[in-house]
Design a protein that fits this description.
The structure is a homodimer of 358-residue chains. With 358 residues, chain A is α/β, with parallel strands linked by helices. Chain A has twelve helices and twelve strands. The longest helix of chain A is centred in the N-terminal third of the chain and has 16 residues. The first copy, chain A, binds a DNA duplex (30 and 30 nucleotides) through helix 2 and helix 4. Chains A, B: Pfam families: LacI (PF00356), Peripla_BP_3 (PF13377). Chains A, B: InterPro entries: HTH_LacI, LacI/GalR-like_sensor, Lambda_DNA-bd_dom_sf, Peripla_BP_I.
DNA sequence: ACGATTCATTGACACGTGTAACCCGTGACG
DNA sequence: CGTCACGGGTTACACGTGTCAATGAATCGT
């Protein structure tokens, strides 16, 4: 309705009233108003525009050297630091890459990978923001993320995004939405890291070595289904493997309990969620008097260094993750040319490594 | 110094010209202008102010229920998501907690702690931003951090902040600057987690058990000095302990090499940087034919579960970290009442745990 | 019937920044 | 001497939001 302001405008009184009048003047212990570029300008005796030009050393506009110095000195004296929010508001875009954190005690392998990714992104001048999504639905998470107007989102798949959610993010300015999970999301740049491969390699290796009654250790800890479910599925998919699901917690008690009833299970091999669970169980089985790999073959995953310290040395599935730099530069390209990178990219490879426990 | 605009102001022509005219009109594939609250207002047929009131469900201002519905529906239809930067620009403050990431492969114990801290902060409605500081000086890091106008900064001590840096951050609006490092910084709320304690407990334990020629394993990996240096210093500070520094990398080769020349070192005990290094070295020593703890006592740190899997079981220093929730609520209090929490708080406790390797 | 009070809504400003467009001397050149 | 170019700056606007003060309309009290 009344969308055109046809009311006569009063002269708009160009009162240069002092800023800093937050309506509570009296008992303020002067909360040290953070200096703005206007303060710098005032102190240097130039206009705010000049300050901006100097501090962003714009080549296009020519400012005399004396003025530059004055401005720099004023900025230094006031300890001026630009306001990132204001800057990106004006610019219309950010360099934020959103990296939803998993609340899971994700393994050392992935920790390292994520760390590396962060550093690589920093090096490309992105600002990495971790943002939890604990207990959020896809819709809620997408909205919360979109508020930050990130230029890219790298989701590890802890919250399942619908195509609609991806659209929300893109509408909010995200030039790349990347899923690292096992399954691609329509509209997103899916960089698939299919954990099923891991389980498949492990089971295939065991079958190859003549074991086919395979127990699969699934962590009881919350939040690990994201990794454990596909690994289990992968193991199940191997022809000739007869798998049985065995929940276990990451504690000595849980491992001992499982080992205690092992003989009644009728299994000749076990594939654990990862090396840590494998080591824990292997120790418990040995303490129970079982021979590894004679009575039972044990297979881990992730190829951690400590896996080689136990005797017998732990066989495992070695996972080749993309380097953080690789993924970061991929993100960078996607941001620059949104339409270029697309579709499914398979980035992970898994190889069984036989040591002594199989 | 013409700081007062005395030029007569033209009527300022209230032209309601269409926004979105970025000077490149012709070949635009319509980059989907992200919807603003103005768009919502237009669609709902109300003013922008009303939209703001409704969407922030302000209790103070009463808006009729029909209008609320109209606005909500319009927002839904457009997929409107508020712009966090604009919001906090207007608000004058953020809820960002800056958590400089270490580029170090920090141990599982600290990973878990940091994860927990993040989640706890999220639960208190803070936005956690990881921000690397690789190769930055204290000055540079402080400036970079200040740009985000965080309400709190939790530094792990990877970059050493001067009092001046802390002042910069506070001037930029940080209500709490918290250092987790071994040493307090003037002006900051120092929550000291002194790693020296760890080394001291370990060495004291070894001395107690009659060993005083102690090798101290220091990782060759970059970035761990932050933890390893104070642990070493702590060990050295124990009366009666004669320590010797032994650099070692986290690889089997490095451990084997060190074990190979062990007998020539004339040591009867070793305190490793953490359990992982301890396990690695212990295995190498055993492979070299040395008896643990007969020939050499081995002590780790962090009390990882896997440390109990080797034989002999690894003695270690158990570290009691504050819970993430605890630290988070402490941050929260500091933000609400900046002057309340202050000074040094010692948050860490360390206890030697004897198992079988000492 | 008319001022007083409540209700629902809106106009206008401020937050801090970047940048396009403009302005004003001054020396060069025709 | 006019004008042209150009160096050195400044003015003005836009980005998207929250919120105070003001405005009409409707209801109430007497």
């Amino acid at each position: 309705m009344s969308h055109s302001s046809n009311a006569p405008i009063p002269p708009s009184s160009p009162k240069p009233r002092s800023r800093r009048t937050p309506a509570t003047p009296p008992p303020e212990p002067a909360p040290a108003p953070v200096p703005t570029s206007a303060d710098v300008a005032r102190l240097a005796g130039v206009s705010r525009a000049t300050v901006s030009y100097v501090l962003n050393n714009a080549e296009a506009v020519r400012i005399s050297e004396p003025t530059r110095r004055k401005v720099r000195e004023a900025a230094e004296e006031l300890g001026y630091v630009p306001h990132a929010a204001a800057r990106s508001l004006r610019a219309g875009h950010t360099r934020i890459v959103l990296l939803p954190t998993s609340h899971v005690p994700v393994g050392p392998l992935y920790s390292a990978f994520l760390n590396e990714l962060q550093w690589a992104l920093r090096r490309l001048d992105y600002t990495v923001v971790q943002y939890g999504s604990l207990g959020l639905t896809g819709d809620e998470a997408a909205r919360a993320w979109a508020e930050l107007r990130p230029v890219a989102v790298i989701s590890l798949g802890e919250v399942s995004l619908s195509a609609h959610n991806v659209a929300t993010l893109k509408r909010a300015g995200a030039r790349a939405v990347i899923t690292l999970g096992p399954v691609g999301v329509p509209g997103a740049h899916a960089l698939v890291m299919d954990q099923a491969e891991v389980g498949a390699r492990a089971a295939a290796h065991l079958v190859e070595r003549g074991r086919n009654r395979i127990g699969v250790i699934v962590p009881e800890e919350d939040g690990l289904e994201l990794f454990s479910a596909p690994r289990l599925a992968g193991a199940r998919s191997v022809p000739g493997a007869r798998t049985q699901v065995l929940p276990m917690a990451y504690t000595e008690e849980s491992a001992a309990e499982l080992a205690g009833r092992w003989r009644s299970l009728g299994l000749d091999a076990v594939f654990a969620y990862n090396d840590e669970y494998a080591m824990l169980l292997m120790r418990a089985l040995q303490d129970e008097g079982l021979d590894v790999p004679g009575d039972v073959a044990v297979m881990g995953a992730d190829d951690l260094l400590i896996g080689r310290l136990l005797r017998p040395r732990l066989s495992t599935v070695q996972i080749e993750l993309p380097t953080g730099d690789h993924l970061a530069s991929l993100v960078d390209r996607a941001v620059r040319e949104p339409s270029e990178i697309t579709g499914r990219h398979d980035l992970m490879s898994a190889t069984a490594v036989r040591r002594e426990s199989t």
